[in-house]
Amino acid sequence: MTELDHITEQVLKQIDGDGFRQEGAYNLRQNGISLCHGDSEHIKIKRKEGKQGIDVYIDENTKGEYVHIPVVVSTSGIVDVVYNDFFIAPGAEVTIVAGCGIHNSGCNDSRHDGIHAFHVGKGANVRYEEKHYGEGEGSGSRILNPVTKIYLEEDAVFTLDTVQIKGVDSTIRETDVEMGENAKLYVMEKLMTHDKQVAESNMEVQMNGAGSSAQIISRSVAKGESRQVFHPKAVGSAKCSAHVQCDSIIMDQAEVSSIPEINAKHLDAAIIHEAAIGRINDEQLVKLRTLGLTEEEAEAVIIDNFLN
Amino acid sequence: MTELDHITEQVLKQIDGDGFRQEGAYNLRQNGISLCHGDSEHIKIKRKEGKQGIDVYIDENTKGEYVHIPVVVSTSGIVDVVYNDFFIAPGAEVTIVAGCGIHNSGCNDSRHDGIHAFHVGKGANVRYEEKHYGEGEGSGSRILNPVTKIYLEEDAVFTLDTVQIKGVDSTIRETDVEMGENAKLYVMEKLMTHDKQVAESNMEVQMNGAGSSAQIISRSVAKGESRQVFHPKAVGSAKCSAHVQCDSIIMDQAEVSSIPEINAKHLDAAIIHEAAIGRINDEQLVKLRTLGLTEEEAEAVIIDNFLN
Questions:
Q1: Cα–Cα distance, A180 to A120 (Å, whole number)
Q2: Cα–Cα distances in Å, from A170 out to A113, A126, A193, B266?
């Protein structure tokens, strides 16, 4: 069992809600190196040769198992680019818990770019959870630029659940999904920015297979002078259906831009988009303040509800 | 009274629903020249010097009056670029009926670009109707690229009602609106494309004044192998509200892309967007066919209802 320092343990508590343990299939990356890892009977993790990252092989007998692959950056000034590939065998059922936390107490920027590719076999069901978090008193930025590529074969189901908790100064998210016949995609993206943070999220979902469907829900809160840009794109090239929904709350001097794109290239493509940007619900605020909460407490309750 | 040829009269019936008459304030442009025009007590039309187009002055005593400014292009191979400016005095109430029809029986492209600017004074109320239409057996294209700029002062109200009926091979629409305090904008855009037609509509609405509001409704039907792209953008830089709705029906091998953009730069900007692309309603089709309509007739009824 590898001994973990205090900062790493604290950061892990934020980004791995289930509690990170060194058992089953797992890989802990710290400051640009793979600190410890383990395999299970059905899940094997291999370090890549020639470049940073791991290959994760999930066999067809995997049912209800978890893989934990957290990343912690606690050295100021680091740029960590890592390539992780996931090969999920047909019929497998797995939950992958990723997440990255940056503790930056220095004056240099710390950055982690996780470039993930998911090759999901026929009928497999994958849940991917990713939490992003930044902390530390340093003036250096905490930067996270994840790239997520998802290839879904026939009947595959993928749930993408991403959360940016707080403390991330700059993020550019790129997500690409290609869907085969009857594949299903569920995306739940939650994002909170504050102070002068900037966040951009680009997503492109290609529904190429007949019967494929996608549900994309994005919820965000922008506080302070932060800036957010959302650009989800759903392309239907076959009989398919998609529903994209982006809701944002703006506070203070924040700015949110939502640019959803829906593109129907097939007679039987049915795609719906909804987006709304507005301030916090005044009626709810008044009600909670009547119950004795301060304005700040009332806002916190409403935001928590909105993001959860 | 200027004598009009048969083609011009037929095209006018399509683009001026109220019936074009040479009375009151009007200007008929034909094949790149101003064929005839008239003023009224409150509305004066002046030909521009140095470039094509007219200046239309609508005074503050105008109440419930119409201005008709149709454009007919019946010569194959013409490129007609015209600049029309409208100066609407504070408190005026006016309906401006524009529209352009191209009859192209030749093998060369015919194109009309109407570049319109509306300077709308405090509290004025303007309704602007614009119908686009193409016909003729020629192989030359019928091309319409309108540019519409709308400047709304305090309390001004502007209704923009545009229809592309049929027969327009290529169109790129550019619409820009700047809104002052408490200004109101209503946009109803209807567009039908067929065969290999292409249509693009870009709109940017800047809600700069406190209390400004915009309602934008876009409805389209894409048949054959036609292509449509919608890019409406609503920017809220003050306390304001906007609702953008784009609905499209695709048929045959058509393709529709909808890229709405909502951008909130102010705490009290509330902006909502909805978009949907899908095929014709199957239940309605079945019901109408049960009533004895052929498939084509049933489709025509549903499309008419959707666009009207």
A1: 10
A2: 12, 28, 9, 21
User: Which chain A residues are Cβ-neighbours of B251 within 8 angstroms?
Assistant: 267
For B212-256, what is each residue's pLDDT tens digit? 999 999 999 999 999 999 999 999 999 999 999 999 999 999 999
Kindly list the distances between the CA atom of residue A228 and the CA atoms of A135, A225, B138, in Å, as whole numbers in the listed order: 20, 10, 50
Cα distance from A156 to chain B (closest Cα, Å)?
A: 24
CB–CB contact B264 A277 (8 Å)? yes
Secondary structure of residue B118 in the 3-state scheme: strand
* Domain range list for chain A: 6-307
Residue A80 CA, distance from chain mean position: 18
Buried b (16+ CB within 10 A) or exposed e, A187-225: bebbbbbbeebbbbbbbbbbbbbebbbbebebbbbbbee
Mean pLDDT estimate for chain B:
94
Q: Give me the pLDDT at residue B304, please.
A: 87
Cα A83–Cα A85–Cα A90 angle in degrees, nearest 5: 170
- Distance separating alpha carbons of residues A258 and B273, to the nearest angstrom: 9
Query: What is the token pair recorded at A163?
Result: 């959360």
- Out of A252, A257, A272, name the one closest to residue B263 (CB): A257
A18 pLDDT higher than 80: no
Q: How far apart are CA A55 and CA A158, in angstroms?
A: 19
Per-residue pLDDT band at A240 (split at 50, 70, 90): very high
Contact A262 B269 (CB under 8 A): no
In B, which residues are within 8 Å of A271 by CB distance?
275-278
Which residues neighbour A179 within 8 Å (Cβ) at sequence distance 6 or greater? A152, A185, A205, A206, A207, A208, A209, A212, A214, A240
Q: Which residue of B has its CA nearest to A255?
A: B265
Query: d(Cα A164, Cα A77) in Å, to the nearest integer?
Result: 21
Q: Residue B305: its pLDDT value, please?
A: 87
Cα diameter, chain A: 61
- Exposed, middle or buried by CB within 10 Å (0-12, 13-18, 19+), for B47? exposed
Contact present, B146 and B113 (Cβ < 8 Å): yes
CA angle A280, A283, A286 (to 5 degrees): 100
Closest CA to B162 of B226, B100, B242: B100
Contact A261 B262 (CB under 8 A): no
Report the C-alpha gap between A83 and B66 in whole angstroms.
66
- How far are the Cα atoms of A20, A25, A67, A73, B257 from residue A41, in angstroms, in the given order? 19, 9, 12, 29, 47
Q: What is the ipTM of this complex?
A: 0.83
Structure confidence at residue B284 as a pLDDT band (50, 70, 90)? confident
The C-alpha atoms of residue A274 and residue A269 are separated, in whole angstroms, by 17
- CB-based contact A258 B262, cutoff 8 Å: yes
Q: How far apart are CA A264 and CA B199, in angstroms?
A: 15
What amino acid occupies position A83? Y
A282 pLDDT band, cuts 50/70/90, is: confident
